[in-house]
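Summary for the steering committee. One of the milestones for this cycle was to obtain a three-dimensional model of the protein with beta-D-glucopyranuronic acid bound, which we needed before selecting residues for the alanine scan. The sequence and ligand used are listed below.
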Amino acid sequence: KYNKCWLNFNPINNYGDKEFLTEIIVCTGNKENNSLIIDNAIKELTEALNKMLNIKVDQRILASEDEAATVKSGIILKLTDDSTLKEEGFSIKQIGEAVYIEAKTDKGLLYGSFDLIRRIAQGQSIRGLNITENPKNNFRMLNHWDNMDGSIERGYSGNSFFFENDEIILDERIVDYARLIASVGINATVINNVNVHEAATELITDRYLGKLRTMADIFAGYGIKLYLSANFAAPIELGGLPVSDPLDKDVEEWWKNCIKKVYEYIPHFGGFLIKADSEGRPGPFTYGRTHAEGANLLARILKPYGGILIWRCFVYNCQQDWRDYKTDRARAAYDNFIGLDGEFDDNVILQIKNGPMDFQVREPVSPLFGGLKNTNMILEVQAAQEYTGHQKDVCYLIPMWKEVLDFETYAKKDGSTVADIVSGRAYNQVNCGMAAVSNTGNDYNWTGNDLAASNLYGFGRLAWNTELSSEQIAMEWIKQTFPHEDKVINTVHEILMKSWPVYEKYTSPLGIGWMVNPNNHYGPNVDGYEYDRWGTYHRADRDGMGVDRTVKNGTGYAGQYNEPLASMYENIETCPEELLLFFHYVRYDYKLKTGKTLIQHIYDTHFEGVEEVEKMIEGWKELKGLIPDDVHDRVSARFNMQLENAIEWRDRVNTYFYRKSGVKDEKGRKIF
Ligand code: BDP
């Protein structure tokens, strides 16, 4: 039915440290029974050690502290009050004949168990291991854009494994889903699409809450909280009220009863995610209310239950006029939210997309991260490859997300990167972190392209520890997924690390974005959105291209950044070249730092992009026989689609700009 991705627990040959690993001893103080979480930790360790090292593990559960104190060998799971540990943190120490996994909570023990498994799965020695791990982000979430009919908005891996025909699916796959995401530290998930229509609006009613409780319990066994996307107009659609005005007493009363019921069914329910006043979704603007008024209404009601209200900042006018140069979609999130800084309740979190537009292959970092100072924030990235190849083309996104996290916002004098801000370090916040739009579906391999599982894996690992490198994350994933052959490891690693730059080369140049087929967003269509209402333009003419977003002559977007960033982007000479066309209108004969003209850069990168895809394919071919055939075949089929796509992009983009500019390729290659 499906594979287990990085939890395959492939056999590890010649592993040296087997002697510590034959017994699991659980010392959870005086607890009468183990929690579900501890049970799951034991299950994972037992299965992993059995499959990877062929060890039949014995288990002993010790209830009293006295007994626990006498245990000196085996894998020892132990609760501790060590003050260096956070609630979800853990330590692992290998001493003598024992490996101690210690944590403050059951959840920490689960994460510690997965950490130990991860090390062994990579063939690492655990002798003398002595580590302490605390997550950098408190919220490590997935957002599924799954619809109740089983389709997935921007899903490229089959259908939903949560929903089908307006019903909730509860099967073994839900458990394996929970295992997969918990193993990389994800602790919250929103299972339904942010665009909440029809049956999905009813998820918060008796019709579905019973089954959701069962699902939430499964998740809880892996330390994961269930969240739902809610419809801001639910009081109208479900309650029959005339309005969903956040300041209306009946509306408030309706939500009170609704939320009370939700918590009666699911006492450990996480809260709501809301997309309001965006792309046709209802919101407070209809009633002349602010987004703070909208969010706070729900947050206040959720508060006594410990619930969280996550409000998306993806708010913009999708009915723009391309003739009006001053309106700029890139400005929208900042313009809509900066004035509300400090007005949101403390259990509200604003969820902000990494860039100001919409998950393009290259965008500047959203200026909201450096702007908001008294607001909880979550960084939203998209693992689903909507604009980065639909999980046909390989595109390892961790390097992109790393760049976002490492971006210096200059929000504070002593430095504050996006990672500092969304982790809560910068302003001492608790409710913040990272969310990814999930790339999963009910395909055999979960992610369409087997290689795309690296993005799901990597998101979790990065959200747990933003300081891990892209290279390390790739390596971890490869070693847990593929046989430990140098050739396999090196080839896959190289493919992953090159994949984002390569995708960027053959698609839209220097940060301008888009140029995709409208609606489905795969494949090239240079003018697809050009004279359209969605606000996504390249503004190419016979002399040049790019959007002037300067304060002096353009849309003013560059001015949304703190100094020295604003000045850096404002000036064409200091603007980072990979974003040149995002911030400036640039002539085709403009000389880039490489000495190449803009037009020659476009030609060259598009030819190179295709050549590099061909090289990746050659590398992959050589892995035949070294990795399981089914994996090899599936990825090969994707690579064929990628090559076709890359060629189409190359030819369309090059031809388009050749015809616009009339400038020939210096190297005389064939442009149509
Ligand atoms: C865009 C998608 C659209 C989503 C929207 C969102 O094209 O399907 O509904 O983002 O994030 O990327 O709400």
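Key point for the committee: Residues 629-661 form the longest helix (33 residues).
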